[in-house]
Amino acid sequence: MTRFIPLREAILAGAIFALLMMIATRFAGFVAPSNLANVFNDTAPLIILALGQMVVILTRCIDLSVAANLALTGMAVAMINVAMPGLPIPVILAIAITLGAIMGAINGILVWKLAIPPIVVTLGTMTIFRGIIFLISDGKWVNAHEMSPAFTGFARTVLLGLPVLSWIAILTVVIFGIMMARTPFGRSIFAVGGNPHAAVYTGINVGKTQFWAFVVSGALAGLTGYLWVARYAVAYVDIAGGFELEVVAACVIGGISIAGGIGSVGGAVLGALFLGVVKNALPVVNISPFWQLAISGSAILIAVAFNARSGRTKGRIILKSAETAQ
Amino acid sequence: MTDTVQTRHVPDRLQGRAARLLKSWEALLLGVAIAIFVINSFASPYFLSAWNLSDATFNFTEKAMIAFAMALLIISGEIDLSVASIIALASTAMGLAVQHGAGTPELVVIGLTVGLLCGAFNGFFVTVLGLPSIVVTIGTMSLFRGISYIILGDDAFRGYPASFAWFGQGYIYWVFTVEMLFFVVIALVYGVLLHKTNFGRAVYAIGNNPTGALFSGIRVARVKFILFLLTGVMSGIAAICLTSRLGSTRPSIATGMELEVVTMVVLGGVNILGGSGTIPGVVIAAFVMGLVTFGFGLLNVPGIVMSIFIGLLLIGVIALPRLWAMVAARRKS
User: Which domain range does residue B164 map to?
Assistant: First the structure.
């Protein structure tokens, strides 16, 4: 089983590399290090959210409310900044993460305590969160000139050649790499998704693990909410509209099985990078950005068909007798 | 018939008082519909007018057409989140045909065909390749609408023939619209299909136990494929009505409608996990949602605030019976 996962990631990494080479033949400047850094920075929010979504999908759930969570947190911190421009950035960060985590916890409680299917819960909270943005903002925009320079500057400050936004994404990847492989929480997430019944017998509370997965996803959405609003220096009701689909697409492309239990941090990151490269390459190779939606849709379908195929061969090895009985 | 199926599927802790509550779901819903009607007629003096009520039906007729097919799909244990995107694609195809001089009959054929093909596309991935319908239809949700964006960009198609307006703007008699006629006919067809035919029995059987259904001789994959086709065709019909009513096509047409359709189905008492639900329940749910949106509209509540209400409704409808069961269980012990 461990042999399959690196293989899949190698294929994806190869696909990204081939894609970059193809673009380079049309427009060499695209693969210049400075431009690749720009592409990475542009993809950073997607990477952060894909990691949160990965944790949720691994536990056999799905979180469709991440983009709405992001937008609501972004609007909330932007309005806090307008009301109290002196508030230091660490406090803003703490508020954003807490707000996001609370929204994630609402999803988690409904899934854990009331056993409502996650897709229904998060479809519902997705519209509720978006609606609340309209209620608190009255449908108005918070524009760049209303925000304090420190608030918008934080995400763009360059440290050691990369903006803070990129560094936060890298830090998140490192933390998740350690968390998923080296902590009891990370292992229990795989256990819950891989086989919930077995997880119960090993003393893992399945519902509670799913709850914490939603809290993690929500907290990251909140964090990204602040970074997003700071980077684009604007907050309104529809920011990141439909972004949840891109996040799920990144995970599916990255080889995270929607049936839970299978997936890796590297896969999620590569899936996000693949979409990021495609998105940034479209204008360079003179394709209308309107192609983006159809491309990510096709990528989901191809990836899920591909994943199911490799998963099926694995099932056959374990359950040979059951397979022939069918 | 539904009673036996429901009691078999309801988990142990929902027995007793909660089970009885679930059984009378349609009755409860009807009470809610009447209450909303009465509240609305007091809240706004414009509510109780035949023409206003006739206009109000446009809030739900198109969604309900899809909801009937979606109800069968959800009862069988699958879901289709791409319905709103099928509307966008079908509408774009019709708009494209108009630019090449198509008349009303051609437009109808094109709308239905695109819906059918989209349904077949979903059905192929789910039943032939055996992939989970949630992921497949999240993918096609982007793909179908994505194709509309590729064709239209930020442009719009207009110039539909005058006779095409009949579907979305026409009246059969006095205040009774063409869409109402479609709604009633489609509701009857699906009611008979689900509750009076072998096919309907098979849908319930598959939702309760797919393996058991397979061993009792039901062609599970074929039934599911047909259900995806039906959902696609219904989205095509809804696309014809919506395009005819709006008179133009943008790629953002019907955005978010899949949520309202699923909410309508779940509100109608269909178990989101499959296995139980009725068409009369969905009919009443359609009226409840239509009356609520219309009532809010008369009181000048903006659309996005109504969507909060729909989100709360979706979660509340599933959460309340479960909370009730938990309270009842705690009281017993």
Answer: 2-332
